[in-house]
Structures are given as C-alpha cells and as structure tokens.
Design brief:
Radius of gyration: 15 Å
Number of domains: 1
Largest sheet: 5 strands, parallel
Structural class: alpha/beta
CATH topology: Rossmann fold
CATH superfamily: P-loop containing nucleotide triphosphate hydrolases
Oligomer: single chain
Number of strands: 5
Strand order of the largest sheet: 2-3-1-4-5
Strand content: 5-15%
Length: 173
C-alpha cells in the first residue's frame, strides 16, 4: 500500500490516529515532527529559532519524501501548506485530512511550549490560522474524515475511506 499522510491542524489527532491506523493496516508509523527532531538532533523550536521557518519547511518536505513507501505519517500542521509538498504527497500516497473543530484542537495545544505557533500567537490569532489552513487541507487531501468521536471510530472511518479510495483507483486503471 502507498503511504498514508495524515494532515490537519495542530491537535486534531494525527499522531494518535496515525498510530492506530498503522497497527490496523500493519504499516510502520512515523510522526514527521519526531522524525525531523531525531534527524536534526534539536527540537522544533530550536530549528525555528536557529535556522528559521523556511529552513524547517524545506527540511519537512525532504523528510516527507523519505517516507513515501508504505508508511503511515502524521505530518506537521504546516507540512501540506507547501503546494509542491502537497502535490508530492498526493502523487506518492493518500492524504487524509482529519477535520477537527478549533475548540478541540485548541484545548489540546494551548499549553504546548514545543509548538512555535502556539507560543507566539493568541487564541484568536490561532483560530484565524486554523480557518485559513482548513481550506488548504481540504484542497490538498485525497479524503476528509471528521475527527470527532472515539479514537476507534475515527480510525475505522480513516481505514474505510482509504480502502474505498484504493479500490476505486484500482478499478479505474
């Protein structure tokens, strides 16, 4: 199976659901942010502070390409904002947008000092970023899954939509 790239706003459940999907599908799971920090030997805030966001986004795109052969990948909240990265993900895998509501996401991220956008923005500013990014996630995703309900329900919905998409692709070839 092609890689599955989970996208969505910070706190939507990409890592949690990604681990569950990977177990169910028997595919290795990778959290892209953790992969980057391991590779760089520094935290995301350190990368932003020392090298800047453009460097981080370039690194993020390169690392995503390294994970294009049979992985379940929890992307960072900004990974698919880059048009070229989104095109690559769609050409080499299935992108799944976990569509959560802002209050849920905010409740999960509001005290997370490891997220530069959270540290540097107010709740209102984060909600504006959320609104802008949502349309980008919608445009860049193969499938959309409401990130509401239990982890099991969301996981089953993701798998169902992936399998339906795979089945339709194979039928149309």
């Amino acid at each position: 199976m092609r890689s599955v790239y989970l996208c969505g706003f910070m706190g939507c459940g990409k890592s949690h659901i990604g681990r569950r999907v990977s177990k169910k599908l028997g595919m290795p799971f990778v959290d892209l942010d953790a992969y980057i920090t391991e590779k760089e030997k520094r935290s995301i805030p350190e990368i932003f502070r020392q090298s800047g966001e453009p460097y981080f986004r370039k690194l993020e795109a390169e690392c995503l390409k390294e994970l294009s052969d049979g992985y379940v990948v929890a992307t960072g909240g900004g990974t698919l904002l880059n048009e070229d990265t989104a095109k690559y993900a769609n050409a080499h895998g299935i992108t799944v947008f976990l569509d959560a509501i802002f209050p849920v996401c905010y409740g999960r991220i509001k005290n997370d000092a490891n997220r530069p956008l959270v540290v540097n923005n107010t709740r209102e500013q984060l909600e504006e970023i959320f609104k802008k990014r949502r349309s980008v996630y919608m445009a860049h995703s193969s499938v959309v899954v409401k990130s509401a309900g239990t982890g099991s329900e969301i996981t089953e919905n993701v798998i169902k939509k992936i399998k339906n998409l795979e089945r339709n692709v194979n039928v149309n070839i």
